Amino acid sequence: MADWKDGVRRVVYPAYEARLQSKLANEKLPQHIGVMLDGNRRWAKAVGRDTAHGHRAGAANIEPLLTWCEEVGVEVVTLWLLSTDNLNRPPAELEPLLQIITEAVDSLADQRRWRIHPVGALDLLPAPVAERLRAAAAATRDVEGMLVNVAVGYGGRREIADAVRSLLQEHAVKGTSLEELAQIIDVEHIADHLYTAGQPDPDLVIRTSGEQRLGGFLLWQSAKSEFYFCEAYWPEFRRVDFLRALRAYSQRERRMGR
């Protein structure tokens, strides 16, 4: 029965995907997509495997996602790979997860298809992990491909706190008093010190695994984003799921806070 179903899927899904993509041809599609890669552990449990297997399967699905994004002209993708809260997981789980993440980022960098940009509190990560993330960014700095933000050790509240801290330090060097800074500070001053400074805000944020909350992802940047919540766990997220997210986005009237 399972083989029969797989055969039907192999026939039906490509045709369905082609129909979805044809309908998107003339639509305005997102230029920056944020993705919360959620559900690796639950997927592993569902298939009777250990947590590390789930994380490896999730890592293997990153390159296909980036390829799908390239195909439709996306310019920036932000991948949430590890939150600051995740850093509190037991070492027996955290250490293999960090190794899987760094290997995945190394692999993306080695292809020289995309510009890798780490976003997160790298000072909270083990030094060798932080160094490998910086090395991936340096190795792809001149690549003329899609910009890929890899959010590792990332938390939205921490990002805003870091942005304010950086802003204060910058003006302290300039000799600006707190009173003077209070008079001039505005939204753009803080935005200029975010991890994603200079980038467009995400048009679309996708979260897998059926959870319908942000959990701190791009808190500042997503104020006017559209959101799409997918039931599939991240390791089983398919191209058809991605195209459905784009279809949902294209059907919405973006009011941009108005």
Short descriptors:
alpha/beta; 258 residues; Undecaprenyl pyrophosphate synthetase; six-stranded parallel β-sheet; globular; 6 strands
Explain this structure:
- The chain is an alpha/beta fold.
- It has a single domain, classed as Undecaprenyl pyrophosphate synthetase (3-Layer(aba) Sandwich).
- It contains 10 helices and 6 strands; from the N terminus they run αβαααβαβαβαααββα.
- It has helices spanning 2-24, 40-46, 51-60, 62-71, 91-111, 127-139, 156-174, 178-184, 187-191, 239-250, and strands at 32-36, 76-83, 115-119, 147-154, 204-207, 226-229.
- A 6-stranded parallel sheet has the order 3-4-2-1-5-6, with helices on both faces.
- α1 packs parallel to α10 (239-250) and α5 (91-111) packs parallel to α6.
- The longest helix is centred in the N-terminal third of the chain and has 23 residues, at 2-24.
- The mean pLDDT is 92.
What's the SSE blueprint?
Elements: H1 2-24, E1 32-36, H2 40-46, H3 51-60, H4 62-71, E2 76-83, H5 91-111, E3 115-119, H6 127-139, E4 147-154, H7 156-174, H8 178-184, H9 187-191, E5 204-207, E6 226-229, H10 239-250
Parallel strand pairs: 1-2, 1-5, 2-4, 3-4, 5-6
Helix pairs in contact: 1-10, 2-3, 3-5, 5-6
